[in-house]
Amino acid sequence: MRQALRRRVRNINTKDSFKAAVKTVKTLISTGKKSEAMEAMKKAMSALDKAAKKKVIKKNSASRKKSRLAKAIAKLK
Length: 77
Fold this sequence. Notes:
Blueprint: H1 2-31, H2 34-53, H3 59-75
């Protein structure tokens, strides 16, 4: 039981970190700050990769999220 609780806490922390990173990128995209969004994208990609590595989310989910963020940044002028 304790191990399950430890894993649950780890999963919640990992999920929170990548969600916050993705949200930061999305807000920068919506405000049109391309260079800052590119920097934040690096952190978001890292957080998504770590979440996928720890099996908090599936590998394809992480790839899909990264792809959609990159596509949105590419649309900015």
